[in-house]
Structure formats: structure tokens, C-alpha cells
Amino acid sequence: MTKVEWIAQITSSCQSLGTYKEEFDAVISTLAEILETRDKCQEEYVKKGSKPMVMKQNVKGGKNSVRNPLLDTIMTLNTQALTYWRDLGLTPAGLKKLNDEAMRPKKRNGLADQIAQMLGE
């Protein structure tokens, strides 16, 4: 998916869970970039045969079997994405961590309520 598609999906998920706030848009955008990059790496990994190990030539000309760098990148991006998912409340642990108090608008004191009423807010 593209970054724009990821942003739409993440925002929709946050809204359906009731955890969306406009202030999270920068975090959502960053997560969307990570996921778009991960998707591109996965496409390349599949295109190159989905091999977890590849042969790499060292400086002296010898060949060694090493873990596919694309697979390492995918795993790193997944770990980064999980952190953002959790912070947005899109995992069970993350949702539990976001308590109602943090998501509720702050209560005003009596004077602030009176001023707001006078101003028609």
C-alpha cells in the first residue's frame, strides 16, 4: 500500500477504536512511511525468491551464506511499526495503556465553565 492508503487505514482504525486525535497525525504519517517502506521491501524480497539466506562474497573472494539483508530490513521495520501501533492504541496492550483519562478533554474549573457559558462555548 502507499503512504496515503496506510494513513487512511490507520486513521480509520484509530477512529473506530475511539483513540484518534488530530494531534496524532504526525505519528500516523510516520507509521505510514514505515509501513510503505516495509511493503516495498517485502515485494522485493518475494520478487527475488523469498530466500532467507543469500550468498555474499567477502573481500578475499570467498563466498559465505548470510541472512538476507531484505529480511533483516523487513523485521526491523516491523519492530518499529509495532511501537507506533502500540502508541496509537492499535494493539491490545496499547489500547489498555491509553486510559480514558488521557483521551478525555480536560475538565475546566468553575470559573472557566462560567466564562465559557458566557461566551457561548
Based on the model shown, name its key terms.
121 residues, mainly alpha, two-stranded antiparallel sheet, 2 strands
General description of the model:
The protein is mainly alpha-helical and 121 residues long. Helix content is 64%, strand content 8%. It contains six helices and two strands; from the N terminus they run ααββαααα. The chain has helices at residues 3-17, 25-47, 69-87, 92-97, 100-103, 110-119, and strands spanning 53-57, 63-67. Strand 1 (53-57) and strand 2 form a beta hairpin. Helix 2 (25-47) runs antiparallel to helix 3. It starts with a helix and ends with a helix. The mean pLDDT is 89.
Sequence of secondary-structure elements: HHEEHHHH
Beta-strand content estimate: 5-15%
- Mean pLDDT figure: 89
Q: Main beta sheet, described?
A: 2 strands, antiparallel
Give start-end ranges of low-pLDDT stretches. Answer: none
Topology, element by element:
Blueprint: H1 3-17, H2 25-47, E1 53-57, E2 63-67, H3 69-87, H4 92-97, H5 100-103, H6 110-119
Antiparallel strand pairs: 1-2
Helix pairs in contact: 1-2, 2-3
Give a quick summary of the entry.
The protein has 121 residues and is mainly alpha-helical. The chain is built from 6 helices and 2 strands, in the order H-H-E-E-H-H-H-H.
